[in-house]
Amino acid sequence: MSDAFNVENLYREHGSRLRWIVLRIVKNPQDADDITQSAFERLLQADVEARPVRDESAFLTTIATNLARNHLRHRDTVQRHSASVTHHYTDVFVQSRGAPAESASPDEARERALQAAIRSLPPKCQAAFVLCKLKGLTYQQAADRMGVSSHMVKKHIQRGMALCAARLQTGAKPGGDTTGAEHDAG
Could you please report the per-residue DSSP string of 111-142? Predict the structure, then answer.
């Protein structure tokens, strides 16, 4: 950490302007706050002995706008991925109530098995999975709805995917292995 910068003074002087610039790019106040903070962290991590920073304001603005653009690219990638898998999972949840179980095709049987696997997930894993994978919300949007961090949403989805995969491979209920299931907080 560099002592060459008085971060408090820099934040007082440039913080609100920097946040305003980032907010205009990302259009989300929480993301703007996080990106602004990250820009100041990058300033603190700068190796001023190897490459001195001549203009802190320009340095911060460049870092913040680059971080904001990277954030948008990442968000677009996540949304494209969500959109590409949503149609698959939407098809899975189409109920075929008219067909008896004996005459179900292999595809219908797999759909029912996946649907059952998703329904048997722990509540927060299921909620995160449905919001992001089926409804196409971003991790941040799901986090806002669930009252958790976007990082926790990602962890719930990863855990849910692993539990669903295990159930589909073995035919067992994901709840059968309770490792971590009782600690589904977040």
Answer: HHHHHHHHHTS-HHHHHHHIIIIIS---HHHH
- What gap in Å lies between CA 122 and CA 134, rounded to an integer? 17
Distance in angstroms (rounded) separating the CA atoms of residues 126 and 28: 26
Cα 22 from Cα 129, distance rounded (Å): 29
Burial of 100 (0-12, 13-18, 19+ CB in 10 A): exposed
- Residue of 114, 120, 118 lying closest to 130 (CA atoms): 118
Please name which of 28, 14, 29 lies closest in space to residue 63, comparing C-alpha atoms.
14
Which residue type sits at 52? P
pLDDT digits (tens, 9 = 90+) for 14-64: 999 999 999 999 998 999 999 999 999 888 887 766 777 788 889 899 999
